[in-house]
Specification:
3-stranded mixed β-sheet; 9 strands; homodimer; disordered C terminus; 298 residues; 6-stranded parallel β-sheet
Chain lengths: 298, 298
């Protein structure tokens, strides 16, 4: 499919991509660039790539597909390094979770004949780093493309087909719509998970062991999400701050309503809300986004 | 172990208990009482019990162990029905998630020679009803006992041994401490899950399908918890309203702090908090309360 693919940043997502490209034989050559030489050594040891170095400029040369898989806050720096080494006609994509800010930042910086097509694979685990990746991470997952003005139609088709070949379902979306929808389905849930875990550990030290011991009652499930990559999430919230901030306000207003209902022992209202939220689970299972296998803890 | 056990309410927990008692051969006879005759018929069909009827008074007669497994708001009514039919020396327990209110309610109503020892098995799934139960539900789960003043030492030992025989680890806890710790590890996480799902579905109808479609990014995991039994949770929040209310206030204050950090692009503060919450996950895995198997969605 490609002659040379360059992955910038071999964390969970980048290393999973390298593995998937190799497994499905989608490029003659795969290279990566990582700031840390420990990572460059590791990915070579794991035989995920043919070459890897911290010299990003050198690594991107002659690549047909370049994938930025670093935290959002590093894009400016990455682009600065690579913008003069991009092959004419190359496809440039990323895997970031927020799009509006970076799409124009990159658009302005790169040459005209580069097709800049941001991608967002809705896939991940709470693990980080090159050893946490695996080739099947994208299987049956949605990948959203938000093509920039500098995206050629044929390149959008190529990138679509690339994601499909590694198992994803692909959607094209408007960039504003993407950031809004994802703030609801992903960013706020993560922020709330971080917050509930942070709140639960701010108690007297002698009670902390009880919190851990009885965490299966619900808290446990939040700690999984709240163990996600701190740097990645710091950047996501800041990049999507307008949507995040608005949604938190709605969330707090609704939580205060629930609190009032509890204080007034308004069982009818609570019941109404809980019946409504139960329904949405069925729709998610119907849409194939989860399985109905039960989880434990109460 | 017992001659006759009576389970009042064969929902997820009650029916799992019936199955476990049968499997581990812990009673010569198992009976249940359910308000609904459809349930009474169902549990007989499923051969979980030897007898079942809506006549609770009749069902409890001559039982050595009686387990209340109905929503908390029905306890008053249940006790009213059974208090004059309790065998001298019987052990009375429940499986409710909040203890302080009901412990004295029942204590006042029952005869002196009945051992009232509330239990709280920290086990459950988001499924409800007699068909959702299974005998292994309590395996490796904590069960907390909060013995009342009307609990004989030898009966506490018997009940402990009962829970251990069906696979649980048993702890004895002060009733106030129980309600406080569980508000943090279970009640607030559930309330927040209900609230996040409720907030996410309060958007324009044409965007709802996108919310479902991309729910694997985090929201999905909350919908699982927010699909738990609405009646049960309505009662839990109201019964534990003082703790719940206080903890929501702390949660909201912390969330507002996070919101300010995002608005001010205070990356350092966000990072600090997210690194702290990541650590707690490791402790939970170390304590055997979850596995480190990764989950999906970002």
């Amino acid at each position: 499919m490609f002659k040379k693919v360059c992955i910038i940043g071999c964390g969970l997502i980048g290393s999973s991509l390298a593995r998937a490209i190799k497994k499905y034989n989608l490029s003659e050559k795969i290279v990566s660039s990582n700031r840390s030489d420990i990572v460059n050594k590791k990915v070579l040891e794991l035989k995920m790539v043919n070459d890897s170095s911290s010299d990003t400029q050198k690594m991107v040369q002659d690549s047909d597909l370049i994938i930025i898989a670093t935290p959002l806050s590093s894009y400016e720096n990455v682009i600065l390094k690579i913008k003069n080494s991009l092959k004419s006609g190359t496809i440039l994509t990323d895997v970031g979770s927020v799009k509006e800010g970076v799409i124009s930042l990159v658009e302005k910086a790169i040459p005209k004949d580069v097709s800049w097509i941001p991608s967002h694979p809705i896939a991940g685990t709470e693990e980080s780093g090159p050893e946490a990746g695996f080739s099947e991470l994208f299987k049956n997952r949605w990948c959203i493309l938000t093509p920039s003005k500098k995206a050629k139609e044929k390149d959008i088709d190529t990138l679509k087909s690339f994601w499909k070949k590694i198992g994803s379902k692909v959607d094209i979306m408007d960039v504003k719509q993407h950031d809004y929808i994802l703030s609801i389905t992903s960013h706020i849930p993560h922020l709330v998970a971080y917050n509930i875990v942070n709140t639960s550990i701010n108690i007297q030290e002698e009670k902390q062991s009880d919190i851990i011991k009885y965490s299966a009652g619900g808290l446990r499930d939040f700690t999984r999400i709240a163990a996600s990559n701190p740097i990645m999430w710091r950047d996501i919230f800041i990049q999507n701050k307008t949507n995040t901030s608005k949604e938190i306000e709605k969330f707090i207003a609704n939580l205060e309503e629930l609190k009032n209902a509890i204080e007034n022992e308004d069982g009818k209202k609570l019941e109404e809300i809980f019946i409504k939220t139960k329904k949405i689970r069925k729709e998610i299972i119907k849409a194939g986004q989860d399985v109905s296998k039960p989880d434990f803890g109460r």
